[in-house]
Amino acid sequence: METRDATRERGSQPPASVSGMISLAGGTFVIGSNDRFAYPDDGETPREIEIGEFMIDPHAVSNSAFATFAADTGYVTDAERFGWSFVFAGLLPDDFPETRAVAAAPWWRQVYGADWRHPNGPQSDASDHPDHPVVQVSFNDAVAYCAWAGTRLPTEAEWEFAARGGLTGAAFPWGDELEPGGEHRMNVWQGQFPNANTLADGHYGTCPVGAFEPNGYGLYNATGNVWEWSADWFDPAFRARDRRTDPAGPPTGTHRVQKGGSYLCHGSYCRRYRVAARQGSEPDSSAGNLGFRCAAASPRAPA
């Protein structure tokens, strides 16, 4: 049963936006979950923490925004340097040549020429969908964008605080029901994964960054659509001993935390489209369902 955080009760309207970002006053909340769908190795151990004031983007960075960054800086992403990335097989043309599949997840295909400009392989073009989230970006690429934009990636705690939208203990940014009143509230897989998507939510692959209703804090697509990088290193065992105030991940690691799930999540195998869900990937890895949003310190925070 979800309840409202005290920080949300202070006003009936979503927080004010500063330079396009949403300013959040912070507060005390419970990060993590005892959800029965939680993966034991993910480290979703719930605990109460306190978050200070910060700002966060209302939505993921779009293709058009990343294109401006790339044009301004000449930045070359990790996928461009490697010459390939992972693409969901269902988004490839029927006559696409056979490529190597991931053994544990054969719906992922290694595609040469896949990068942020060509998210579904060389035959695709990100400029056809300027308002969709940029994908095929690594943690390193996201950090480079943030440095250019004068922002940073959110910590996992900041991300989850913002994604909850003022709700306490809810599975999703709007509550505990996946489709309240039969309404689709996020872009995830419907049907039988990975071979049959009914498109009940209207999307196959990514959707615009501003699609669906925002949560109580004004964030769009905090769950579903694309996984989002956070600043923290991933260590399932670290959560229980991390500090209580403005916690961050461990000082070192091999994988960075991703949050939010994606358009490929489905209840039959991956219910990670919950706000508490988390997974880790190596900082130079990229895929067709992986993007990011930016955060920043509050302008009122002490220098």
What does this structure look like?
This protein is an alpha+beta fold and 303 residues long. The chain has one domain: paralog of FGE (formylglycine-generating enzyme). It is 13% helix and 20% strand. The chain has helices spanning 6-9, 63-73, 78-82, 139-149, 156-164, and strands at 3-4, 17-18, 21-24, 27-31, 47-51, 54-56, 84-88, 101-102, 105-112, 167-168, 191-192, 196-197, 227-233, 256-259, 278-281, 290-291, 295-297. The strands form six sheets. Strands 2-3-6-17 form a four-stranded antiparallel β-sheet, with helices on one face. Strands 15-14-13-16 form a four-stranded mixed β-sheet. A three-stranded antiparallel β-sheet has the order 7-9-8. The radius of gyration is 18 Å and the shape is globular. The termini are far apart. The model is unreliable at 1-13 (pLDDT under 50).
Main sheet makeup:
4 strands, antiparallel
Gyration radius, in Å: 18 Å
Corresponding CATH superfamily: paralog of FGE (formylglycine-generating enzyme)
Beta-strand content:
15-25%
- State the domain count: 1
Q: What is the structural class?
A: alpha+beta
Question: N-to-C SSE series?
Answer: EHEEEEEHHEEEHHEEEEEEEE
Which CATH top level class fits? Answer: Alpha Beta
Count the beta strands.
17
List the strand order in the largest sheet: 2-3-6-17
Q: Quickly give the CATH architecture.
A: Alpha-Beta Complex
Number of helices: 5
Mean pLDDT equals 91
Cα separation of the termini = 39 Å
Helical content (DSSP H or I, runs of 4+): 10-25%
Outline type: globular
Low-pLDDT ranges: 1-13
CATH fold-level topology? paralog of FGE (formylglycine-generating enzyme)
